Amino acid sequence: MQLANPLDDPAADPFAVAAEAAATIAELTGVERHDIALTLGSGWGRAAELIGETTHTLAATEVPGFSKPALEGHVGTLRSVLLPNGKRALVIGARTHYYEGHGVRRVVHSVRTAAATGATTMILTNGAGGIKPHWTPGTPVLISDHINLTGDSPLEGATFIDLTDLYSARLRDLARSIEPTLDEGVYCQFRGPHYETPAEVQMAKTIGGHIVGMSTALEAIAARQAGMEILGMSLITNLAAGIQQTPLSHEEVIEAGRAAESVISGLLAKIVAEL
Ligand code: 8IG
Fold first, then answer.
1. Which of 196, 219, 229, 261 is catalytic?
2. Which CATH superfamily is domain 6-274 in?
3. Mind listing the pLDDT tens digit for each residue in 98-155?
């Protein structure tokens, strides 16, 4: 039985809960420090096996502040992975989405926990819809910037934080040095869980968006607050509503993720090896 989530207490200090979570991870894994962290969204899960040797797998529910995944295709685990270069990766397969309605503190808890374990690089991946029509399902793209359409922020109070170059140009260059054909685009985080209307997709396009999704932007803001260097990547699993001619189906989205999984996970593993 899981106890109530400590982040549900409005009086809780989210950074103290993250520190507690990091201490629990250190205790359960025996690994004092992690160097990099990866959140693996739909389609990216196999990267966990390809980047190195998983020495410990924790159920997210064992770690304070984490919750059960709400969705099929999302795994509720945290793994400690020993990379071939001797570094340590924390692999987060337990994303809490904003649309679950548990509040933004729960959404960014994994990022704050990763920072508290010592990680200075945050890799955020997701499955998403594409606005550029030549991005066929299965295309991985780099996130160059974002537009946060949730109307929310992980920052509380008068916490003014610069978001210039939020998605590291250095890490995007590094990714392109491995896969020169990687395209990039601006990620629009919608609240979800409904997909967009075609009119909303046109709005996203008009305001400068290229990718539509339901995660990542709020997490990136929290990662910047924590001082981490951020790499963001989307797997385009579908063209956004109205860009593709047929209605969106969750099953098709999951299937496109599955089909691309080994290729994009292999790519991500190569990128991680160069960090
Ligand atoms: I996978 O088309 C996936 N996630 N908002 N729109 C939004 N999220 C998504 C989409 C999409 N595809």
1. 196
2. Nucleoside phosphorylase domain (3.40.50.1580)
3. 999 999 999 999 999 999 999 999 999 999 999 999 999 999 999 999 999 999 999 9
> Where exactly are the structural domains of the chain?
6-274
Cα–Cα distance, 233 to 135 (Å, whole number)? 14
Rounded CA-CA distance 151/14 in Å is: 20
Distance from the alpha carbon of residue 14 to the mean position of ligand 1, in angstroms = 28
Please report where in the chains the tokens 């990866």 appear, as a residue: 38
Active site residue 251: no
Helix axes 250-274, 169-178, angle to 10 degrees: 90
Say whether pTM exceeds 0.90. Answer: yes
What are the pLDDT digits (tens) for 53-97?
A: 999 999 998 999 998 766 655 558 999 999 999 999 999 998 899
Ligand 1 centroid to residue 19 C-alpha, Å: 32
Atom of ligand 1 nearest to the CA of 192: 5
